Amino acid sequence: MPALSPVYHPREPTDSPLWKILHQHYAAFKAGYDEYCEKQYGFFRPVVDEVVEEYLRCGDLHEGFARVRCTNPDCRYEFLVAFSCKGRWFCPSCHSKKTIQFGEDVPNNILYPVPHRQFAFSIPIMLRIYFKYDRKLLTQACHCAKESLEMFFRTLLGLDDGILGMIMVIHTFGDYARFHPHLHAIVADGLFRPNGTFYCLPKRDLKELEEIFRSKVLAMLKAEGRISDVLIGLVSSDLVMSQRLPRAISRRPCSMCPTISHAGCRPKHGGSS
User: Fold this and answer.
1) Residue 175 CB-density burial (10 A; 0-12 exposed, 13-18 middle, 19+ buried)
2) pTM of the model
3) Which residues contact 230 (CB under 8 A, 6 or more apart)?
4) pLDDT of residue 163
């Protein structure tokens, strides 16, 4: 194994194809968004501007830096480290760092040493338009998923005071960065009692969980005034539910190697670990 270089080599953010595309074309894209894109993708959200501007400044010494100096009086070697945007999902460099940190933090500091499994909750194509134009509904969908898991687990284990252990994230993209809202969750495979005792979930068909989540999402959208009883009847068809579902819990929108499976408006679970 070759020895590590003792010299710090800063990255060159302006060499990135993504940086070059945004630097050259983002202003034109933004200027023409209302005319060419708003009808299909909704209004231009201010957060897009914030993320892009932060990314274009990420790693640029002209935008600020920290000076790192060796405290050894015989050395005093120093170098500059440019400030980063610390952005999730969009910036390749910062996201990669956060993915590594997240991957280490979850098993070491967050997950209790009990079996866990992965669930993915998908929204059918017919309903995605409501989530596209009102992103607050994604938070409501998270509540629906959490309540569905809680109800399903408590019923199976007969623990009315059982506590769910879960990490959940929202994804709004699918293959080729198409809008595809869905939720990923790492869930303890059972329930905790207030005294800390853990009860493992018995093996069971997840059809009931699918139906609970489906009914909660439809009821939520109806309560928000988005859908009618007629549309609820259409969406309840298994044929309409069929769609593709990504698995990776931290895949970026521009991932070149997506991993997909077939599912539909239902939780997809992985094996216990």
Assistant:
1) exposed
2) 0.69
3) none
4) 95
